[in-house]
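Folds abound. Consider this:
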Amino acid sequence: MATLASLEHSLRQSARRGREVLERASRRKVDWGELPHTYTPVADEDRAVYSKKTMEELQEAFSTITEFMAETHIHCKRFYDSVGCSQGSNIEKKHVPRYHKHIGATKIESSSQLRQHGRSQGQGPPDDFYMEVAPGLYTISASRPGSQQQTQMIDLDPGDTVSVTFNL
């Protein structure tokens, strides 16, 4: 019986404290009518401009990443061509066939095929890229400075090998 009495006493205390908190909260004045200064409503056309700007920034970022990957690929290939794969470690011996030759289950091969008469000075020979990717739908874009970007969409199933050529 003593435990039942202490339980009732505890419940009454909790109820009394709850009422006190409710009374204090109801005495406070809160004005929810004005929006904070950090929020400004955005019109649909402004949202479209912002979205387009964001997409352009993302395209530029991915383009920069692709340029760095291409440059790294060229330097890496030159290094292994000069050193020779037989002198490297097991990791290096696995690296060359994986990233610089046509071996693997699902790959995208991208070749920028430039016609000899259309080539500008200093552009050099066409670049080949070999990538292993998971099956799925991919959009691949390529461009050179001063030329229009070309885009191709491919759908890869497991085990597919696709060759994508851009005439830049």
User: Anything to note?
Assistant: The beta strands are 107-112, 128-132, 136-142, 150-156, 161-166.
